[in-house]
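Regression check, nicotinamide-adenine-dinucleotide case 507:
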Amino acid sequence: MEYQVICAGESRSFSRDHPLVAGGKDSGQVVVIIGADAGAAFRRLRDTDRMAAVLLIELGTECLGVHTGEARGEEGSNVLGFARFRLGDAAPSDLVELVRQPRTAEAALSAARLVFESAGLKVSTCGDFAGRIIDRLVRPYYNAALRRLDEGLASAQDLDTTLKLGLGYPEGPIELLERTGLAHHYDVAQALFEASSDPAYAPARRARVAKQRRES
Amino acid sequence: MTTIKTVGVAGSGTMGAGIAIVAARAGFKTIVYDTNIEALARARKQTEGFFAKSVERKKLTGDEVERILGDLSATTDAGQFAQCDVVIEAVYEDLKVKHELFRRIDPVCRPHTIFGSNTSTLSITEIAAGSGRDDRFVGMHFCLPAQLMKLVEMSPGLNTSEETFQRAWEFCKAMGQVPVRTKDSPGFILNYFLIPFNNDAIRLVESGVAAPADIDRAIKTALGYAMGPLELLDLVGLDTHLLVAEALYAATHDSRAAAPALVKRMIAAGKLGRKAGEGFYKYEGSAMFGG
Ligand SMILES: NC(=O)c1ccc[n+]([C@@H]2O[C@H](COP(=O)([O-])OP(=O)(O)OC[C@H]3O[C@@H](n4cnc5c(N)ncnc54)[C@H](O)[C@@H]3O)[C@@H](O)[C@H]2O)c1
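Current build output:
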């Protein structure tokens, strides 16, 4: 399937030579808008351009509805959001969280899937919720691990060993946060906490300290 | 310090049978005690089947298996524990049942004998309090299936002596296991993190954030987990998950530990997971649909 790529600022997860970006043509039935300013670029499009194609907007932590507007649970069109999951400083993963709305056109979903999969990515579809799938699941878990470390439940090494040996996780939570950046965990968890007021997302003390040290 | 030669296992169910395999395989004389003679017979048959496979896979020789099975005995007589240097209990997850067991075996066992508990959700200190020897009592939480999983979460109760803990720790290593030290705290490490994580995954399904297959694919792709949380829940069984979640919630009052309403509805609808042919996915034979 032919698709066009519009670059709107630096993307956190896609370099210019990634197959998704490099594979873009001059025009196409699908338009992929990539970069930190993707939402703004979408909003600048003329109505006729918005109707002509399936539009895929790269999201940050915001919801897709911020760009499309919402209508009493009946929103949805040929516009989808997406984010390639990346944990802090680690390399971006192969996962694309594809964000739909209640009335998103099924044909638009299928087309979007095809575009990402042909670029070697794996797609999970989800609703337009803060934190989508992965952040909603891992941020409370990472916070709990950091809190329990503070409370002396076990040493960092024993916490990591337990989750690796007991559940087959490739990495324990403490070593993973050290590798990918505690301060980055703070940023994501804090954004989710602000969006949801759920205390499970409130950044753990160790993440807060790392953030303060980075800023000082 | 008395060296440990003879191991007692109380309870010959899923976990007890596995723990007995671990102890006997490592060269300890092992006595399994259960009040139910059928449970003992069932475990013996499964154990023989397990070791036959170990020979087939060339992990053990026929001679080794003969030695191991010779070292492994079963009894309905708690008096046999008089020979044991350590007794690990894996009876029902019920404080009363565990206290009754220890009340019965404490007078039989010698003073140096260490008591261990494989409890998943009860407090080691509370079980130890009714054991007659709370200074020689330690939590030893094996993982399912114990005969294959190396991890043992070891926790001292509030009155456990450091010497007891060290002896039990060395014994655990001598069984070829990998011990980790954790406080006597609800769910220890594994269940403390796993149960709320799995509940959160169920809540994503419940609130329509994403479908089970999308959630599992996301977790496996982004984090490299071998299994997604909903596949894992189907394997464990939602009824088992509910029991552990209820126990953890009762002990912590952490809202993430409480099983979402969907779990009870799925149980009522017979969607218990893999063993029922349907849970978050549908199964036919061993193949999975809907992935
Ligand atoms: N199943 C798991 O995944 C798992 C994992 C780790 C820990 N545990 C813990 O291990 C323990 C046992 O669990 P299980 O799944 O093996 O249970 P199970 O029901 O399979 O086996 C329990 C056995 O204990 C016997 N028993 C009960 N009361 C007894 C008594 N007073 N004296 C002697 N034998 C008695 C029963 O006859 C039965 O054979 C529980 O404390 C559980 O929390 C279970």
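Comparison notes: Chain A touches chain B at residues 85, 87, 93-95, 97, 122, 124-127, 129, 132-134, 136-138, 140-141, 144-145, 148, 152-155, 158-159, 161-163, 165-171, 173, 200 (CB under 8 Å). The two ends of chain A are 49 Å apart (CA to CA). No diff flagged against the previous build.
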